[in-house]
Design goal:
The structure holds 2 protein chains of 2 kinds.
Chain A lengths: L3 H32 L8 E2 L2 E2 H31 L5
Chain B lengths: L2 H22 L5 H9 L3 H12 L2 H14 L4 H25 L4 H8 L3 H33 L4 H18 L6 H27 L4 H5 L10 H11 L12 H16 L2 H4 L8 H37 L9 E2 H6 L4 H7 L4 E2 L8 E2 L7 H10 L8 E2 L4 H8 L4 H39 L5 H24 L5 H25 L4 H23 L25 H19 L5 H11 L12
Antiparallel strand pairs in B: 1-3, 2-4
The chains are: A mainly alpha, B mainly alpha.
Chain lengths: ~80, ~600
């Protein structure tokens, strides 16, 4: 196993990435999809508004992007810290 | 060939396919059964997990709930997909590194306590049983329609088939059977949607069609839909009407619950490497998203089609006549669905026409009085029939209808059988062998597994006859229970230093508080009539029982932290375990515990 300080740095870096991803996760679903929908009501998307699009399609697409980004970023981070399998 | 034979043919052929694959790829022993997962590519694993996960709730029920409520039910879409983000970021890679096979084993080891393991098993059984009730509701709808019998008879026949399917056993676990089930399920869902999208908008892709232009009127589809439903006095489709707090909590419950469901988490224990656990979650969501991006289009387009059928001359023209319903083949589905008892109409004012409108709307009352209407005459339209009836409503060819029947059964049966297996092994292996009688013989263990399965299906069938809600709503309760009990324990096990006492206290609080809240609103043990409150007038503020899982999860976290602070810190070896789970390096292949 790698030494203690590098392990801690790896874990801190991981937590940082998770935090950013979860902020985006909450923003597109609870934010744009529900709570902030009135603010986005001016932006029309095919017969409704942007908030409706985020609630029914957009958030799902962002979720997909987030998971693949996280997998790619973490697999890179594993190599940077030499903790990959 | 008539529709009944065609349905039989499609359902029969799909079952022959699953059984054929199961025999071809049959796993010999338990370890082989698990080891099979290790050679599986993340894409294949993702497809199999998607089939495992998408049940009657996603396939049969969800689009119907969206169709009749509109935007407010977007929670199902965001909740059941957003949970995969939590799973991929917070659980899957670490649980893979831990390298055991079940969720209760992780909880037992991490919280160094057989009690914690036992409590986790109980949480698992409670959530899974509730989940099966929802599945049985869907099974009843699918069998009722496909055999053209009443919903009750369909449910009883379906229960026997599910039981046989689950006892036949191992075939559920064979990855390639699930891949085949996924293919049948997704074709059955998307093909009719493509046809309908072409009919209504000229776009072959349903998700684009939803935001596209309604070909007949030249207006955007959603604007047209809003107009016709408000003309009939219903709430507009795209606007936000629901209580916002509830909508947020409900979405959150479904998300956390998704990441806390043992049969989904288990799939990530057996991928070859930690890196694959991360990719695998992504691929699973890709395959789930194919259905979830189609579902809102299915809902909106079906709602428009139904309104058009009921008001063939436009919402300000004459309603459809009883004579036309009886003679026009476009209305033949109404006759077949009446047999299930889940659909019905009644010419209340005796004018020979069926007026479909919202008779609870005061503005409509004036119009109704003027025209001599005496209430909404489309008296019964169960939300759970929408997806299965959809190809008939849109007048699609017979083979599409047969395909949808096969897909609906694949979704309901695979998940119901999988859950029954999970319940029976939890009872016989974890509960009886692990805690009550460790010396039980292998034969006794097998027998208790069978008995547990039979009891679970009997309970689920009985409650499925008078379900606490539509299939997806009952399933949502199961997610609330998983959210309140399992997810917080797993997450705290990886990210915090919460100890054994804290975890047990947290899980018990989350489970009990949520369960009692649900029982107070849906009846004790879901027995109808024993509830003290309703979701329309809930105990706490406006929080419905379906949304309470998120509150239960928060209580779980809070209690666990407080109790943990007040009791002994983690032993060193457990601290080392937590450290090691956090680093991918050194992950061996998963090993069987016990």
């Amino acid at each position: 196993m790698a030494d203690k300080s590098s392990t801690n740095a790896y874990w801190e870096a991981n937590l940082g990435i998770i935090k950013v991803c979860l902020v985006i996760w909450a923003l597109v679903s609870f934010g744009f999809g529900i709570l902030l929908r009135p603010l986005l009501s001016g932006i029309q998307v095919g017969g409704s508004d942007l908030g409706f699009w985020f609630a029914q399609q957009g958030s799902i697409l962002v979720f997909l992007a987030l998971i693949f980004f996280y997998a790619w970023r973490m697999n890179k981070l594993d190599k940077e810290y030499g903790v990959e399998e | 060939m008539d529709q009944f034979t065609l349905n039989l043919l499609f359902v029969g052929a799909s079952f022959a396919l699953y059984i054929g694959i199961a025999i071809w790829a049959r796993a010999g022993s338990t370890s082989e059964f698990y080891a099979a997962g290790r050679g599986v590519h993340p894409v294949t694993n993702g497809m199999a997990t998607a089939a495992d996960w998408m049940s009657a709730a996603s396939f049969i029920s969800m689009a119907g709930l969206i169709a009749f409520t509109g935007y407010d039910n977007s929670s199902f879409l965001m909740g059941w997909t957003g949970g995969y983000v939590l799973l991929a970021l917070l659980l899957a890679p670490y649980l893979r590194k831990f390298g055991k096979f079940t969720v209760s084993e992780f909880i037992g080891d991490r919280f160094y306590s057989p009690t914690a393991r036992l409590v986790a098993v109980i949480c698992l059984i409670v959530a899974s049983t509730t989940y099966v009730i929802g599945q049985m509701t869907g099974v009843g709808v699918a069998f009722g329609r496909f055999l053209e019998v009443s919903n009750t008879t369909g449910l009883l026949i379906g229960a026997c088939v599910v039981f046989a399917y689950a006892v036949f056993g191992g075939m559920k676990g064979v990855t390639y059977t699930q891949v085949a089930q996924y293919c049948v399920l997704i074709c059955a869902y998307t093909i009719p949607a493509v046809f309908i999208s072409l009919q209504l908008t000229g776009t072959p892709l349903p998700p684009l069609g939803l935001f596209g232009e309604h070909a007949a009127s030249g207006e955007p589809l959603l604007a047209k839909l809003d107009q016709v439903v408000t003309d009939l006095g219903f709430a507009s489709y795209t606007e936000h009407h629901a209580d916002t707090v509830n909508m947020v909590l409900f979405t959150l419950s479904l998300m956390i619950g998704t990441a806390g469901l043992p049969h989904v988490i288990m799939r990530f224990f057996t991928v070859p490497r930690v890196a694959d656990a991360r990719w695998s979650a992504g691929w699973t969501l890709v395959f789930i998203a194919l259905l979830y991006l189609t579902a809102p289009a299915v809902g909106a387009m079906a709602r428009l089609n139904i309104t058009d059928l009921m008001w063939p001359n436009g919402t300000d023209g004459e309603a459809v006549s009883v004579e036309q319903i009886d003679s026009d083949p476009a209305y033949a589905w109404m006759g077949t669905w009446q047999k299930t008892g889940l659909f019905g109409y009644e010419d209340k004012n005796g004018d020979g026409k069926i007026q479909y409108y919202n008779d609870k709307n005061e503005a409509m009352a004036a119009k109704a009085a003027e025209n001599g209407w005496e209430g909404n005459e489309l008296t019964n339209f169960n939300r759970d029939i929408l997806v299965l009836a959809n190809p008939e409503i849109a007048n699609l060819p017979g083979w599409v209808i047969g395909l949808v029947a096969a897909g609906g059964l694949a979704a309901a049966l695979s998940t119901a059988a999988g859950l029954l297996l999970a319940i029976s092994s939890a009872v016989s292996h974890d509960l009886i062998k692990g805690a009550i009688n460790p010396n039980i013989s292998e034969k006794g263990e097998l027998l208790s597994a069978r008995i547990a399965m039979a009891v679970a299906i009997a309970v689920a069938t009985y409650l499925g006859l008078n379900p606490p809600g539509f299939a997806a709503q009952t399933v949502a309760l199961a997610f609330g229970l998983a959210a309140a009990s399992i997810f917080p324990a797993l997450m705290m096990g990886i990210f915090t230093k919460v100890n054994n006492v804290g975890a047990v206290a947290g899980m018990l609080t989350g489970l009990l508080v949520t369960l009692v809240y649900i029982f107070l609103h849906k009846g004790w043990f879901f027995i109808p009539g024993t509830n003290s409150f309703t979701d329309a007038d809930p105990l706490l503020f406006t929080i419905k029982s379906t949304s309470f899982g998120a509150i239960g999860a928060m209580l779980n976290f809070a209690v666990a932290f407080m109790v943990s602070k007040a009791t002994a810190p983690l032993p060193t070896e457990i601290q080392d375990l937590v450290e090691s789970v956090r680093i991918p390096k050194g992950a061996g292949t998963a090993v069987e515990g016990h």
